[in-house]
Each structure stands twice: as C-alpha cells, then as structure tokens.
Amino acid sequence: MNTKIKVLSIGIMSLALGACAGVQKEHWHNFDRQAVMAQPDENNAGLVFYRDNNGNNIPAVNIHINGEYQTSLQPGGFSQLTACAMPQRIGAYVTGADKAYLAKAKQGSFVNLQPNQVSYFRVSTDADGQTRLTQVSEDIAKQEIDSSKHQTNTLPRVDKKNTCIDRTQPRTYTLDASALFKFDQSSMNDILPNGREEIAAVARDIAEYPVKIRLIEVIGHTDPRGSDAYNQRLSEQRAVTVGNLLVQGGAPASLIRAEGRGERQPVVSGCEARYKGNREAVNRCNQPNRRVEVKVHAAK
C-alpha cells in the first residue's frame, strides 16, 4: 500500500470563530451518498476534496480552483470535480475568516494534475485554527472517505473549460492600468497598493508554475487620448515598471521582455464618437484599453 503523503504549503490562521458567546453553531444537512468518482478519461483529471472531523469549531472551509469557488466543506463532507489534466492552482480557506478573504481566494498552490488519474486532498483544521490541504494516496483517501457524505449544499462556480489551457498559447494575465498606477504615471513610486498586490500575485504564479518557461512578455497599452508619441512612451514605461516588480517578486529577469504598444491595440474602439461631449463616459468606456498584459510562454 502506498502511504506516501504530500503536504502542500497552504495554510492560514483562522479567527476564533467559536469565541463569540451566544452564537449558535451551524448544522448543515445538505448531503447525499454519491460515490467517489471513477477514473477519468485520458484527457482529464479528477479532484476529490474531503474534510476530516478535526476542527469542528470551524463551520466551513472554502475550496477554490484557480480562484473560482468549488465548495464550502463541512466536517465529514467531500466534494469532487473533473478538470483538465494540467497545472491547477488550489486553495483552502476558512469561510469569512478575515477582510482579506476575497484576495485569498486568488491564492493557493499549483498542483500538476496528471491525465487519467484522480488526485485526493484531505482538508484539515488543527487546534490552532490552521487550515491545511494534504494530498494523499488513493488507498488512504478511500479508507478515510468511506464514512463521508457528498456535499450538495452549495453550487460550484468552477467551469471545467476554464481549467483547460491551450499549451500552444501563453498564459495571460491582464492588469488594469487604472488600478496599477496613479493617473498618467508610470514609475515604481506611482504604483498603487492594490497594484503591487496584483503584480506580486502574478509573480508568485510565475515562480510556482510547474512548467518550464521560455519567455515572459510584459506589454503596456493605453487608451487613444493624448498623442501617439506620449502614449507609446507611457505604455513602455509602465511595462518596464511592471517587469521590474515581477523580478522583485521572484520572476526570472532573464526571461522578461517589456514593450509598449501605445494605443495601437485597443480592446474597445469608438468611445469618443459614442459618448461625444461626455468626458466621464468616454473615460469609463476606454478603461479596458488602459492595461498591462503579462504573457507567460511555456517551453515546447
């Protein structure tokens, strides 16, 4: 029997949810006796998450795949899905633990899923309120999941097609320049706090992505306001700044190529004509054009 256990470095400290006096503990009964999934076909991978009976003071642990919500696991429950057999980012977080919850939903660690295999993950919370996601063997999982019940209490938002990436195409991150920089600015000192967090999250993705990378393109874009020369310069400077922050976050400097494309590749066009005389509406329409794209090209 293969009893090798791999522990992912995913953990958060939950708040003392049970410390509030007079709060009645939740009791959810939305379960069924659905069987654990069988072996998937050759192009797919299976994922099974099950919660052990530790940490009963923690009412629910949210499971996310690539930032998308899968389920809120109760003690003794399990959830499962089929995904494409390629790297997927998996996270486990205590429901409503803190104000940074929405940001944490985008974090986690990559697991390189293999075709025609089911991967099993035990979800635990210890006495200190630490949540841990542990990958276990099929034998161990089936022994421990035998008395568990399949959860049907929440609707998953993970779409299988969104777990599939065309390996011939780059993995692309699109960052809203309005959220990254102060207006018309481009330097390191002009990066907004949320912008730094977004870039750090992309750098972490790149550092942890379990595929060899041959090139990282960082491409700045502007809206059509201003002269061509000004927009070209602004887009170049923003791309360089984002590239430098990616390097600070752990991305390999030797693989980064920063460039600006000014206003030449808009996402939306005709904003001035559509909202003539309404500067606020034009600015809002043009927002998708103000962006920095990070394209991660895998080695063949």
Structure report:
With 300 residues, the chain is an alpha+beta fold. The protein has 7 helices and 15 strands.
* Computed structural class: alpha+beta
Termini, distance in Å? 36 Å
Please give the number of β-strands: 15
| CATH C-level label of the largest domain | Mainly Beta
Q: What is the CATH architecture term of the largest domain?
A: Sandwich
Order of helices and strands: EEEEEEEHEEEHEEHHEHEHHE
Parts with pLDDT < 50 across at least 5 consecutive residues: 1-29
What is the percentage of strand-forming residues? Answer: 25-35%
Q: In which range does the helix fraction lie?
A: 10-25%
Largest β-sheet summary: 7 strands, mixed
Number of domains: 2
- Radius of gyration equals 22 Å
CATH topology annotation of the largest domain? Immunoglobulin-like
Shape: elongated
Query: Please, how many helices?
Result: 7
- On the 0-100 scale, what is the average pLDDT? 82
Secondary structure blueprint with pairings:
Blueprint: E1 6-7, E2 31-32, E3 44-51, E4 61-65, E5 68-73, E6 77-84, E7 87-94, H1 101-104, E8 109-112, E9 117-125, E10 131-136, H2 138-144, E11 149-151, E12 171-176, H3 177-180, H4 193-208, E13 213-221, H5 228-248, E14 256-260, H6 271-274, H7 279-286, E15 291-298
Parallel strand pairs: 3-9, 6-11, 13-14
Antiparallel strand pairs: 1-10, 2-11, 3-6, 4-5, 4-7, 7-8, 9-10, 12-15, 13-15
